[in-house]
Amino acid sequence: VTTARVTAEGFSVDGATPSWGRFAAADDPLEAAVRAFVGDRNPRLPRLDRRTLCALVAAHLVLERGAESAALVVAVEEGSAAADRAYWSTARERDGADASPSLFAATLPSAVAGELAMTFELRGPCVVFAGGGAFEAPLGRFAGGGPRLHVRLRGWDAGEFGEAVADLESSE
Amino acid sequence: VADGAAGDDLDGELAAMKLAVTGYGCVTPLGAGVPALIDGWTARRCAIRPVRRFDTSSLRVRLGGEMSDVPALDGLRGPGHLRPALDEAMAASGLPARTRVLVLLATTKGFLESGLQVETRHPAHDIARPARFVADELRLRFSIDVVAARTVSTACASGVTTLAVAMSEMDRADAPDAVVCAGVDLLSDFVFRGFAALAAMDAAPCRPFDVGRAGMSASEAAAVVVLEREEPARSRGATVFGRILGAGLANDAVHPTAPDHDGGGMTRAVADALRAARVPVDALGHVHAHGTATVLNDAMELRALAASLGAAAGRVPVTTLKGNIGHTFGPAGLVEVIASIEAVRAGVASPVTGLVRPEGMLDVLMDARRLARPTFLKTSAGFGGFAAAVVAEGVGP
Question: Closest chain B residue to A134 measured between Cα atoms?
Fold first, then answer.
């Protein structure tokens, strides 16, 4: 298992001290990091929320270490509360005449998984567990026995920054 | 894929495992209970009507599928619909007290009824609440030993995804005795305005696979399916209504909302489901398609099914009941599996309501068709590129 973690303090791999490394001096270290890591693979980065950006950084850090992931399992503990509020702020007035289609698409708890799949071209089995208890969901055998990228997100409902953790596991 | 040959590269145990369907229940815009669903589908009744629960007067689209009003439970509408679906499924399955059950709940927005609930951190705005509700109902009213309750949210593929996860979970050494796959989503201004902004809805009732289709009809439902291993289920006297034979999951990895033009994800999911089930395509009696009636989804699905079914593509009947109830999102796959098992048990598949001029070369049903085989394929797809498929069969009464 290789583990990458992204928090407000920066990113780390396999328990190292978190830092933003060469991106620390940037106005927005997260944005700078994600642009450097996957900017050439996802043209939608400017429209993605910070939770998704952290997930992309965490996934990049484990996937760059070699293995192609056949399966993707994502756990989003807080569902999509922040994305729901962002979308509804565009949809609540004038009977939704100004509703943002892209923000609406982001209200699905599975939207993060979709961005991960697209960015890293993960075309295998893909499952999303949402809400409390999502972190405890076992990876199971639906992944077919191949390598699995397990991305877990939590703490994003309370403030600007939460936590994104990515594990790459070769087998159960 | 075309000949459906069983592959040896998949997990042997998973491929060999079948799960018995020992009970199911649902509430849909056609009414409460499986008989109401089947009666409406058979009679080609369309439950897509002017939306009553929120104002659509300024929108181009004003139709949707709504379940009948029920008394709220805990101040919420969703539990009032989910409880009768659970009761119907539990009555059919007869799961005894102290059965160890895993709950898998398919949803996109949980019990969310209104956008205003998003602003106020309302209890309905907790996506895990429906799973907890089902777990509590099972514990308190049926004395079931719920080992875990998990929320599966892969957009509109959620329902079929729970069946795939159930197969995986029942294959573990510490597997529960049964899995209750449930699903719920409610029609709300939150969702309706979003799909209106995406221009994804037809102003008229949806017309799956019709050349003139112009979008989906947003809807709502609650559904429950009980799964067990067949031998212990039969030994306790349970009725086996159907079997889940194999499942496949994939992702298009192409676009946040649009499907892969070539249906890559769905084709892979179908191939994996057929391989896991060890069912050749010639053995399929029918396909219950996702069939949302959006221009892009149906075109993708027609391509994916043509590729998956190969030479059998024109011979395997294809149907969907979204023309009757619209798209119920999270629970859609469960509702449709229930409908297809019932169709097999009755020996007849109902046609696609609203279909006048079918697109493509598949045998999309314009009229009811006697089913020659009990095995069927159920497909699903969702935003984020999710694709899910199960191969299942109905067991005659």
Answer: B150
Flag if B197 and A91 touch (Cβ within 8 Å): yes
β-strand partners of B286: B376
Q: What is the pLDDT of residue B142?
A: 98
What are the tokens at B209?
Answer: 């696979």
Q: What is the ipTM score, two decimals?
A: 0.94
CB B48 within 8 A of CB B346: no
Instruction: Calculate helix-pair angle for B34-42, B332-346, nearest 10 degrees.
Output: 70
| Residues on chain B touching A128 (C-beta within 8 angstroms) | 152-154
- Substitution target in B10, B56, B146, B153 with the highest count of A β-carbons within 10 Å is B153
Catalytic site residues of B?
Answer: 156, 290, 327
Is B109 in contact with A107 (Cβ distance < 8 A)? yes
Q: Where are the beta strands (DSSP E) in A47-158?
A: 71-76, 126-130, 148-154
Do the Cβ atoms of B254 and A118 come within 8 Å?
A: yes
Helices (H), B124-253: 129-142, 158-169, 189-197, 230-235
The tens digit of pLDDT for each residue in B121-162 reads: 898 999 999 999 999 999 999 999 999 999 999 999 999 999
d(CA A15, CA B19): 41
CA distance A50 to A30: 8
Nearest Cα residue to B285 out of B331, B235, B321, B319:
B319
Q: For chain B, give the number of residues.
A: 397
B48-50 vs B178-185, strand pairing mode: unpaired
Digit-coded pLDDT (tens) for B32-55: 999 999 999 999 999 999 999 999
- Measured CA to CA in angstroms, residue B212 lies from B64, B118, B126, B205, B259 at distances of 19, 36, 38, 12, 19
Inform me whether the C-beta atom of residue B359 falls under 8 Å from chain A C-beta atoms.
no
